[in-house]
Structure formats: C-alpha cells, structure tokens
Amino acid sequence: MNKINGFNHSEEEISNSGKDLFFDEKDYLVVEYEDAIPINSDKKIKIKNLGEKFASINSFFFDYLKEYHIPAGFLRSNGKNSLKLIKHKRFPFAIKLLNVADKRTAKIFGIKEGEVLNLPIFEIHTGNGKDSMVSESHLIAFDLCSVEQLKLINRICSKVNAVLKSFFERRGYILAEATCHFGKYDDKIFLVDDFTPKSLKIIPINKEEKLIDPYKFSTSAEIKHYTDHLFNIMSAQ
Fold it and tell me: I need a surface site. Which of 96, 176, 195, 225 has the fewest CB within 10 A?
C-alpha cells in the first residue's frame, strides 16, 4: 500500500484514478481531478476541462444523495476541479451496483446481455481487474470490515441505487451500473467515491436515442461526449 499523507491507496488505484489526493492545512482530504482519464494501466487520454466536469458531476450527486439522508464524506467543492472530503480511512474494496446484466452475468445465468434486472446485484471488488470480485465472507475472514459495517454498507448501497435509479428514470435513462466506495471516520461510515463517467453507466430508455456505449468508450471524443451528456443532465436541474 502507498500512503498519501496518511490516506491509504494501492499503487494500481493511484495510477489508474485520474486524480490526485492530499490533505490540506486543516487536515481535510482534497480530491483533485486531472484533465485526463486512464484507459488502461499504460495510457491516459487528455481532454480539456475534464477534471472540472468530473468534479462538478461528483459534487452534484454527492449533494443530491445527502438530501436523501445518505451519509457522504463530501463537504464541498474546492475550486474548479477538486472536492473537499472528511478525513477518513478508506475501505479497500468497492461495491458495484448492477441493474442491467453485464456480459459475465448474462453468460452465467443464460440471459441476454443488457437485460434489465428485476432486482439489483451488488458485487464486491478489491480492484479494477476482471478477477477482483470477492465474497462477503472474504471481507470478514480477512478482517477488511466487520459484519455490522458490511450490513450498513449494503443498506447505504441499496438506498444509493434506489435514489439514483429514480433520478435517471425521471429523465429517460436506465441506471445500468454505479460503483460506491466507502470510508470510516470516528466510527462512522461514509460514501466517499465516485460519480464520474467511469462509475456511472446509463443507457436511454428510448432505444432509438443514440448515446455512446459507456462500457466501450476508448477515444477522447467518446469520453468527452459521454461526460458532457452526464454534465448536461446535471446542469438541467
């Protein structure tokens, strides 16, 4: 693990995050988004004003979720391309919320890829790779969190999913996927990441509407188009 002024992240997560993390003079965590997005471990694509839009999208959704009494470590925007969060110890896993069958799920259960699920699937991931998925018993066995902490994290995820699904459905979109990261401070658990286009994947309810496939974008034009689309949805509020 690397330690950034007391904030623990793996080397893979730092190199593939597209953001910088540091503490300010008051010991708040500052997340600063770059004007670049990692495509893989070796390549980043630079896009003008990308960091500012990532910060704005995150800020909007954190504030929106807090209106529904969802505990979030986000405090406020910290300039054009950065956010200020409560100092916290980050849990070394993320919860991926799936409302649409991805390729793996479709293959295992014999359903069509892209089919809307009746109930969401919550996957636990310890990294960004294809083999990063683990079970709840892994988390408990290796003391990555307690049973009670996991129950609370799952409750928060359920509420995040319900609120975001409703938000996008009212605007003509299906929330296909979102990824939640959590941190702990003073024995309280908070949502701390992340609502960038890397995490939020939406598809139009109207199949005739054209939108970049959020699972497959790889060029600067595709990333910019999808980011601008999320930004415009947010800005229309």
Answer: 225
